[in-house]
Design brief:
The protein is an alpha/beta fold. The chain folds into 2 domains: 3-211, Spore Coat Polysaccharide Biosynthesis Protein SpsA, Chain A, CATH 3.90.550; 214-253, no CATH class. It contains 8 helices and 13 strands. It has helices spanning 13-26, 44-53, 68-83, 103-113, 159-163, 184-194, 217-226, 234-252; strands spanning 3-9, 31-37, 59-62, 89-94, 97-99, 117-121, 137-139, 142-145, 155-158, 175-176, 179-180, 198-202, 207-209. It has a 9-stranded mixed beta sheet, sandwiched between helices. The protein has a two-stranded antiparallel ribbon with strand order 5-13. A two-stranded antiparallel sheet has the order 10-11. Helix 7 packs across helix 8. The radius of gyration is 18 Å and the shape is globular. The model has no long low-confidence stretch (mean pLDDT 94).
């Protein structure tokens, strides 16, 4: 496995720092790292430029606006393949992740053992759902799980899928009356499946999110409302709005 990883950032600098250092200290397969920043408004861009100058980032792309994760991943993979055409797998890395030691070798084993596995989800979060167990699939001694029907967030897919023209949908997030529409993750997995590839999450805990909505209330308020989750997460968003108001008052005092 030769990994072309695109890390997507938008604010949440503390998470970005932790994710980048954790990724670099645990990945053991050959890799090339592209970071795509979606127009951060905090100190993220300046910090990323320092890391690029130190050689920790192989290519840094600073977008002029927030294109959201799917489009950013497409941009990063397209640019990364210009410099690292020998990549065999493409990875999307969100900037709120932690990794277990040895994760990349286990991921490699999944793809080696399951020839038609096209997309592997690394975030263990869905596997914590008690409904997940009954969807386990087994092949050549490996267990993977397609629950809840698509792979969201941090994942790895074979480069053959990209070569087939399958990539993230770049339609801007939209919704009607705060009813969420299908996001880019859903369509990507559906396209992969339609092309006769398998997909699923690792049932070995390789990676997990470190996000806490209360760390960055403004970020999560905007993200959830942009995606149409205002009703789904109403109580949590109401709590975050109060928290955000309190922080603004404290800052202005």
């Amino acid at each position: 496995m030769k990994l072309l990883t695109v890390m997507i950032t938008h604010n949440r600098l503390a998470y970005t720092k932790q994710t980048l250092e954790n990724y670099l200290s645990t990945v053991t397969v050959p890799q090339f790292l592209v970071v795509v920043d979606n127009a951060s408004t905090d100190d993220t861009k300046e910090w990323l430029e320092m890391q690029s100058n130190k050689g920790k980032i192989n290519y840094l792309l600073l977008n002029d606006k927030n294109y959201y994760p799917g489009a950013a991943a497409n941009f990063g993979w397209a640019k990364g393949l210009e410099f690292y055409p020998e990549a065999t797998h493409l990875m999307r890395l969100d900037n709120d992740m932690a990794f277990a030691d040895g994760w990349s070798e286990v991921a490699k084993k999944y793809f080696d053992k399951i020839p038609k596995l096209g997309q592997l989800g690394l975030d263990y979060g869905p596997m914590n759902d008690p409904e997940a167990d009954r969807f386990d699939e087994y092949e050549n001694g490996m267990t993977y799980n397609p629950y809840p029907g698509n792979i969201g967030g941090t994942m790895i897919m074979r480069k053959e899928i990209w070569a087939q023209g399958i990539k993230y949908d770049t339609t801007p997030w939209s919704h009607t009356k705060e009813i969420p529409t299908a996001q880019e993750d859903v369509k990507l997995s559906a396209d992969i499946f339609a092309a006769k590839w398998k997909f699923g999450h690792s049932t070995v805990k390789l990676a997990w999110t470190i996000d806490n909505w209360e760390d960055y209330p403004e970020y999560y308020i905007k993200t959830m409302t942009d995606r149409g989750y205002g009703k789904v997460f109403k109580r949590r968003l109401d709590k975050l709005r109060k928290l955000a108001d309190g922080k603004r008052i404290s800052t202005n005092s």
